[in-house]
Amino acid sequence: MSEPPVAKKVLKVDVVHGDRRQDDYFWLRQKDNPEVLAYLRAENAYTDEALKPAEAFRETLYQEMLARIKEDDTTVPFRRGRHFYYSRTEKGKQYPIHCRKPGSLEAPEEVTLDLNRLAEGHAFVSLGAYTVSDDGRLLAYTVDFTGFREYTLHVKDLQTGELLPERIEKVAEVAWTADPATFFYVTEDPAKRPYRLWRHRLGAPADDLVSEEPDELFRVHVERSRSLAYVFAASASHTATEVRYLPAAAPGAAWALVAPREKDHEYDVDHGVGPDGDRFYIRTNGGGRRNFRLVAAPADDPRPERWQELMPHREDVMLEGVDVFAGHYVVHERQDGLVRLRVTDLATGGSHHVRFPEPAYEVTPEGNAEFVAPRYRVRYQSLITPPSVFDDDTTTRERTLLKQTEVLGGYDPARYRSERIHATAPDGTRIPISLVCAKDTPRDGTSPLLLSGYGAYGMPYPVTFSSNRVSLLDRGVTVALAHVRGGGEGGKRWHDAGRMLAKRNTFTDFIAAAEFLVTRGYTSSDRLAIEGGSAGGLLIGAVLNARPDLCAAAVLRVPFVDVITTMLDGSLPLTVGEFEEWGNPEIREQYEVMKAYCPYSNLTARPYPAMLVKTSLNDSQVMYWEPAKYVAKLRTLKTDRNPLLFKINLDAGHGGASGRYDALRELALDYAFVLGRLGRAG
Q1: Which residues have CB under 8 Å from 94's CB, separation 6+?
Q2: Residue 653 has what DSSP assignment?
Q3: What is the mean pLDDT of residues 592-620?
Q4: Residue numbers annotated as active site
Q5: What is the DSSP letter of 460?
Q6: pTM score, two decimals?
Q7: pLDDT tens-place string over residues 144-168
């Protein structure tokens, strides 16, 4: 086995609040420097050599995961206007094909966009916006070919198949108006912040700049209401919102304000009807009501003074979202980490809950594009139940299964068990853990376990199904998800308790979850692997510094590990906008908290477990140089002989490979590493 690559040291010293910070690997951010690319390629070569003995096993994993997937498949069609829209995949092709049928599912298929054709000549492709004009003729879509999430807008005539001359760079969002020749779109600044709202009319010599958001904490969004009656434009930070609106039939009209922005007040708006005519339904957390309540206001005068409460705030229930239709609205609530749906009839005011049977699950809306709709469509899944698309009749409460994702090869959910358990954090907080394992898995500490976590941005860790995960379960590995603070499982207070000055709770929660699983016999520390990506990679990096003895192996995907350097650089994507998540290191108190947990800053000479670190060269969310610096520095400090492997995708972005077969091979590499370290390879 060759010696691992050694990155050269180039001294760079910064002084922040009188604190001297030495960074010998700052130079690795020079993306165009041949020495940087040479170092990254050397790391790839070293990792390939280290994993070569497991090459056959990796291929076995890939083939068995592929064998569970129905390669020729179709999504459930949904209606929008005169057409039914869906996508399908074909065996051997990396990307979905977007299609529609006019009027009936028996009608001939029209291909609206074939991503496989778009991907020709490109190593990466990602579809962003995909929206059709009201008359069904024009498709506005955005596409990225680098992984940097820098999207270009095109307009396609779906009758002729031709592209119109429009080509607009750096587009974040797009929304059609009722005029089939006019749409609004949002563009990004050099730091990738969506900040300008434009009005575009097909064939016009120039676009109209509607507004520009000067506050770098705020990002601009634009969307059309489901009723198609209004267009909404929002400026939103992590803690405050300001929404404007105009009639979709009058794209040249002046925008009206719903409520001015104010500190710690987030809200969003949808349009519907009520006893007194057109209404805006507003989900709001103003006035310290952190978990949101639901109010309504007349659409012609939606000032806060006119707001009428429809659903009160509750400390133990997070109101996550509202879908408004002509005859009812559906509220997504989350309590103790689990989603439930509450359906309210607009005519009677009566409501009922839609409940789900398993101890841990995920439910999301699916293709509800029509305003007049007697049924509400959801995608339900759990750690053992494959994604299942249901139509729920909002009047009769009858539920119809439209499709359950096929898992080939004889998958039987009865062979596995799913649990929802709780660890106790050092401050006494109950930390939910979702887990799945084979039914015959022993509870005596002999079973290997893979524990994942995230804990940021108020985002709950999704409890979703994965047919690929069966390759772990059938080898005796339990898979667990730690729902730590900083996420959204317990609502806004749960998020608040794991961000800014309280960020340390995220890490101690995860450690408590791991220790609980060991104490209760689910696993042992020498049979435990931990993993996380992006902000979850920060979590794993901080945990490894605090407790390197916690586990036998760790996987860090696109990890946010150089927190201080990134948050000091306002030119980078996300930095300024995320001062409200991580803090601003220019403020001493916030700097000291960051310094205490920043994974890169706290690497020291000690043993670390086996580690696989992964990144992509074109990542715009967490720049490649963060994990590159982390690995380079750790190589000079670690006192153990455990492997430290660094794998870089030179053609992708934050989400890794874009093609489904390529992504599966990346996962096979991860699984081969984890199973090898846990003694379950073969």
Answers
A1: 116, 119, 658, 659, 660, 661, 662
A2: B
A3: 98
A4: 534, 619, 654
A5: P
A6: 0.97
A7: 999 999 999 999 999 999 999 999 9
